[in-house]
Amino acid sequence: MSYNSSYFFGDDTISGWGPRYFFSFYSEYGEGRSGMIIEVSFFVVIFVLSFIANLMIAAAVLKYPEMRTVTNCFLLNLTAADIAFVAGIPALVYTRLNHEWELGNFACKLLPYSQFVCGFVLLWTLTWISMDRYRCIVVPPFRSQLTPKRACLLTTITWLIASVIFLPVALWFREQTTDNNLRICTLVFPKNDTVNVSLLFLVPTLLLSCIAPLTMFVYYYQQIFRKLNETKDRWRNNDKNKFGSNKPDVLRQQEEIRLNRHMRVIRILLLNVLVVLIMWLPITVIMFLIYVDGSRPNHDTNFFLRSHHFIWTLLIALLNTVVNPLLYGVMSENFRKCFLRMRFLSRQRKALTRQIFCDGGPGSSSSKTPTMVKTQFQFTNAISIID
Q1: What's the whole-number mean pLDDT along residues 114-137?
Q2: Where in this chain does the record put each G-protein coupled receptors family 1 profile domain (predicted)?
């Protein structure tokens, strides 16, 4: 008998718990169809937008050697983690539509394992970017201590650490048949009379994968904000002392442009911090609450969580895979130049193909070889807090 739409009674014959309740992370029975349609619609939109945006970022970095900077190496790793993260959306959509878990035991282990690993890599990659910006802006001699090769090595180590840390997730998630003959994908910690395995795993994992990177992320950007504000105040004071009230209009306009660009940078960085906190704190909290709610004895059935609580926090975290390429790519002047360059070259190729076709093909006597127009897209070489 199920006491709500997400907890089901069954017999654990593998981990030694015996009869107990299981939380269905991805399945929810009795959910209203309107709620299900909204969930699926959001998942589909995020899947499409994330794939398009991240592939564009990856194409720009891989296509143009001048774009292979330290920050962009981290960004390339971020796109890989984003794409791997959203790759599980079709399985989520299928399960939400069918309610019952029908993808088998292997998929039940692989889906949450990949989500945990990708989430770890996403947060730590964002932290590495903030750390590199901090060294370029706050710490003398104001330049990165990394090279693109070192950045790639650091991201590889991050993937390896995440893969090892979350191996227990792949072992402990499994397909479980309940007393109602329903199949769900659930997490069952091994039973140990001496050590609380679930608490021993959950607390260090949350600290290492969520709390630590988010804390470092906020700290580095707070230091950057402080440095930028000090610089802005110093500019204003120097301009007042140097020119007084008789400042020429041209210099006043230059100062205004400089300060406006400075404030734009601060707003973008602040938006970056808020987005990461808003999108990753909910799933951090809900994972801890799932542990608390599922630790009740069998006779206590006052469960307060449902599967859709977990799904919606997961959806918010998945939305970050759409926001990341927008914040780090579209708002970067260099990436915008890359996108314009790729679009321009694509139009040139279409025009060339159309001209050859209209002239009768390469073998035609009337065919002419058009000259490709050379255009210059100059990339910014100076260190930029946005790029």
Answers
A1: 91
A2: 53-328
